[in-house]
Amino acid sequence: MTLLPVEAALERILRLCQRLDAEVSPVGLALGRALARDVRAGRTLPPWDNSAMDGFAVHTQDTERPGATLKITSTIHAGERPATRVEPGCCARIMTGAQVPAGADAVVMQEKTRPAAEGAVIIDEVPRAGQNIRRRGEDIEEGALLLPAGRALGVAEQAALWAQGISEVDVGRRPRVAIASSGDELCDVSEAPNGRIVDTNTPVLAQLVSLNGGTATVLGRASDRLDAMRDLFRRGLEHDVLITVAGASVGDKDFTREALESLGVAVDFWKVAMKPGKPLAVGRKDRTLVFGLPGNPVSAMVTFELFVRPALRVLQGLPVAVPLLPARLAEPIKKAAGLRHFIRARLERRGTELWAVPLVSQSSGALASAVGATHLISIGSDETQIPSGAVVDVLPLSWGA
Length: 401
Fold this sequence. Notes:
Blueprint: H1 6-16, E1 22-26, E2 39-40, E3 50-51, E4 55-58, E5 68-76, E6 90-94, E7 106-109, E8 113-115, E9 120-123, E10 133-134, E11 145-147, H2 155-163, E12 168-172, E13 176-182, E14 186-187, E15 197-198, H3 201-211, E16 215-222, H4 226-236, E17 241-245, H5 256-262, E18 266-269, E19 274-275, E20 281-285, E21 288-293, H6 297-316, E22 325-329, E23 333-334, E24 340-350, E25 353-358, E26 375-379, E27 385-386, E28 391-396
Parallel strand pairs: 5-6, 13-16, 13-17, 14-15, 17-21, 19-24, 22-25
Antiparallel strand pairs: 1-12, 2-11, 3-10, 4-6, 4-7, 5-9, 8-9, 18-20, 20-21, 22-28, 23-27, 24-25, 24-26, 26-28
Helix pairs in contact: 1-6, 3-6, 4-5
């Protein structure tokens, strides 16, 4: 059977994705979520010319030479409206953020002045018109595009919305993700193993779904029987995404594909030319996207990062790409040709450069090989020897500390 290249697998997954409907969210709870619609400014900001400094509002015709002495006719604090204009030969004491009074066209910072006689000040510089003044509309004009649809909300975007008096926005709905596992050899973390293995995949995938904007529902674990898997998967198909874990290989009790297809899931592909994570199944039924992840713990985590994570982003209306970073390889890597390898690594800075340090263990069944990993090093299928110091692409992990 021909294995699908990683890039082709991702392209086919993204073609199966359909962006979810929008929902209303308080701005304070929308961090990291994508705007579903353009947001336009309803207010001009700043609403008036205001001072960028504590100092004195002057008219530059009165300060054409250093040492001009001006009469102080008022004091203006932030939040106050100027009561009078600045007349010739006069100035106003002004605080940062305060509205610049009529008649003034510059602000001289306090450090550039000296006290004169009572009620007057000496201006020790020649200011230019507009100096230390934040102009009305300098931030944004009413009606201008504030934030475009698809923009992920960071803290700065939240601040921009709040400044406009906007407390709620339309964002892409969080994907509802069902997680179903199988395996007679597994037990829950609260149970005594008695020869079994603790199921870490289910809670780990639930955490990764939450980290990437989804709402996870753990359906439970089916025994290694076709009817049990089918009953569990049927419940998962009521969600936006169904993630199954294990049973995706070719063992005597690997019924995942048969169970999915019996429920009407159109399986798009089954195996990918990568390590770890080759036995990956992807399909769809109606609007439900289905992923059959491998049972090895690290394989499940890596395939989530490479394939489920981008799909969740598209469903929410976020840009699919998680930017790759260039880094120098700290240790040489040797591998066989044929599969693209994803090496768990940590990134560290040495001088002005980033270096990717592969973790000692790369076993897909050992959780220790994921602990401490912050990035994946991508090594092409045809590459066999990568020397130390070579520049490689690294992918930031959503689970990386």
